[in-house]
Amino acid sequence: MSNILDVRNLATGYGDLRVVWDVSFTVQAGEVLALLGRNGAGKTTVLRAITGLNRLHAGRIEFDGHDLGRTPPYKRIAQGIGIVQENKRLIGDLTVEENLRLGAHVRRWRRSALTSRLDWAYDMFPALADRRGTTAAMLSGGQQQMLAIAQALMPEPRLLLVDEPSAGLAPAIVGDVLSSLARLSETGMAIVLVEQSVDFALALASHVVVIDLGRVVLAAPADDRDELRAQVRDAYLALV
Ligand code: ATP
């Protein structure tokens, strides 16, 4: 199968400040790549480079076999890259449905296409269907996370980048977020998951990349989860 995402020898950062030195990985349809590493390792910066928010210092990012080059972020979203940022880009004063419509904006759909995508989102996240007229600010943390994911899914991306979906959520809710991401990956969605929680990541991952100081320190498939958990633990311990 061909790669949806191919990140090759990525170097990037903020202006001239380089924080990612050499990161490579690929993701195919239906795969979940877990990008792990301690605070400040460069995980969010890698996601920002894929989204086009940070410029490349070196290397190459291909989406669907095409070099993304200097394609601006809004075009990447329209081409099929969805992002769920850690500080959820929801508008608190708008309702659930208004936030979802905003997510679909880049597609400039007619009413019927928009309605059927809204139906899809409510089907995928039934808790949102019950609250479609509620303002986002009134939702629980878990519901806001679901809405942020649903919003990113509105334009029908083929690749979803998710930054720390378990952050700040109660353990009971984390399970709900996990199962919705698992359902998505079963539909063929390619997912890059950035996580602090190794257990959350390993529950979903088809392969794992651990980075530190902007470089890959472990890349492994998740064929044997216990073995991989031990490898990730060893990689983390080696950093201390
Ligand atoms: P965390 O889990 O803490 O978000 P992370 O692995 O996602 O960690 P990044 O957010 O990618 O790490 O940060 C990587 C490095 O880049 C850190 O040293 C951080 O201080 C630095 N950094 C992040 N944002 C900026 C910025 N806007 N300007 C300059 N440096 C930044």
TrEMBL record:
Coiled coil stretches, renumbered: none
Keyword Transferase assigned: no
CDD domains tied to this protein: ABC_TM1139_LivF_branched (cd03224)
Pfam families xref list: ABC_tran
Keywords noted in UniProt: Amino-acid transport, ATP-binding, Nucleotide-binding, Transport
Molecular-function GO term, any one: branched-chain amino acid transmembrane transporter activity
InterPro entries named in the record: AAA+_ATPase, ABC_transporter-like_ATP-bd, ABC_transporter-like_CS, BCAA_Transport_ATP-bd_LivF, P-loop_NTPase
Gene3D superfamilies: P-loop containing nucleotide triphosphate hydrolases
Gene Ontology BP terms: L-amino acid transport
Family matches, as SUPFAM superfamilies: P-loop containing nucleoside triphosphate hydrolases
Domain ABC transporter: 5-238
Record-stated family: Belongs to the ABC transporter superfamily.
Protein's name in the database: ABC transporter ATP-binding protein
Organism: Phytohabitans suffuscus
